[in-house]
Amino acid sequence: MTKYIFVTGGVTSSLGKGIIAASLAKLLQARGYKVTIQKFDPYINIDPGTLNPYEHGECYVTEDGAETDLDLGHYERFLNVPTSQANNVTTGRIYQHVIQQEREGAYLGKTVQVIPHITDEIKRRMQLLGESGEYDIIITELGGTVGDIESLPFVEAVRQLRWELGANNSLVIHLTLVPYLAAAGELKTKPTQHSVKTLLEYGVQPDILVCRTEHKLSQEIRKKLAQFCNVNINAVVESIDASTIYDVPLLMLKENLDKTALTKLKLSNKNEPDLENWKNFLGKLKNPTSEVCIALVGKYVELPDAYKSITEGFIHAGATNECKVKVSYIAAESVTKENVAEKLKGMDGVLVAPGFGERGLDGKLNAIKYVRENNIPFFGICLGMQCSVIEFGRNVLGLKDANSFEMDANTSNPVINLMEEQKNITNMGGTMRLGAYDCEIKKGTKAFAIYGKTKISERHRHRYEFNNDYLKQYEAAGMIASGFNPETGLVEIVELKNHPFFVAGQFHPELKSTVANPHPLFVSFVAAALANKKSK
Ligand code: GLN
């Protein structure tokens, strides 16, 4: 039977529920359990695909093309197991389904209500992944903070589900904040007491408290939290600020979070967790023998969460190279022809980031021209790849108005174009080229040297594509297509022949980089940056 763990959040948002859920899942997986994590988000968008990155950080795309919350990225990076559309559900999706059912007459004669119709649909979705029998344990993270109006139906669904699942088959972990008041020199338990009280009002008694704190929890504080929140003292878990999120599984292991959870679920904790590879990774991450500086040029740089997976990709690739990767986030708009040398001074490699819309385009082109001409390693992702094509078109091929159809629909040289099948689409949600696509790599190219094989698969999220009418011209001038889609012939990777490292992909390699499998493009790019630094 599949067992269920629910993770709720109290006091404030941004406590790192995703990391705690992923860390616990990692420990359970390391003990031999089959685990997956899903996230239920209380907002009304059908998915975060239509959200500005400033609102909600990066939109993470799964193999099956779902546009999801960035926490799913943590789940995959920690567990090295792919997630899917079923792992991320929003209020919008729940209501969409119920309303559709209502129109079809599924509830004919009945008043359709939050309870039971919405909560039933939430419960159904919560158990969907469990039906396959593939998992021993499913961890469900509830977005938002307990007490929010919009999370109420989710908490109610958890209450009902716990009752239906019966004793020992589920547990609730409440992640909360224990703030430190410097003036009083004390850790404060009251906010936690209040948020547990709120949960209790809704009929949910948490089994385990995970307490985010800047200082160690004394025995006395633990006892107080346990006593006033009705939990066992062993179930008060300290989650102290860590220097890297990848430390958190080991910190949770020290606090016995996995053991406590398994005991409550009446599952065996005999197998010690096998964390050797994880510790190996951490060892390399924390003991770099060198350092490189990478510029990330993008338009959402004020919020690094907008580039979460890229940042993590560099952490994985850095560890592989035993090299600390210092990423500088550079606002694309600020890069001009005049200041580009100054802006990129000291950078061993430059990445131009994914993005949408015209803002910052010129800055990206300025950065790309500079690194192309100065032999600085370059890595382009999605819009970054498209920009490298525009730059090459304008400055090498002399196509002065080379552009992407996205930026200028009237250009006479749409080197990046809209595909026929995209032309009649008016809906903005879920209509891009999304999810995993095969890519064939040409032998003898840099891409082949990096991947070491000809057949790969990568995840996409974009509307526009390289315009193959220009391919011959580009290849003759030295920008070659080294990867293409075997079915459609669409160009997926471009690279420069006469450059130490100039590689750009139409896909998002960052979405597939995990601790267990750092992405080869990131690993090679960091190695190229390192080589560039050494040659200076
Ligand atoms: N805006 C571009 C497109 O839609 C690139 C998207 C991206 O970088 N993810 O094709």
Layout: helices, strands, pairs:
Layout: E1 3-9, H1 17-30, E2 35-41, H2 53-56, E3 60-61, E4 67-68, H3 71-79, E5 88-90, H4 91-104, H5 114-128, E6 137-142, H6 152-165, E7 170-177, E8 180-181, E9 186-187, H7 190-201, E10 208-213, H8 219-229, E11 236-240, H9 248-254, H10 257-264, H11 276-286, E12 290-298, H12 308-320, E13 323-331, H13 340-343, E14 349-352, H14 361-373, E15 378-381, H15 383-395, E16 403-404, E17 414-418, E18 433-441, H16 446-451, E19 455-462, E20 464-466, H17 471-477, E21 479-484, E22 491-496, E23 502-505, H18 520-535
Parallel strand pairs: 1-6, 1-7, 2-5, 2-6, 7-10, 10-11, 12-13, 12-14, 14-15, 15-23, 16-17
Antiparallel strand pairs: 3-4, 8-9, 17-20, 18-19, 18-21, 21-22, 22-23
Bound molecules: glutamine.
The site of glutamine has 10 residues, from strand 19.
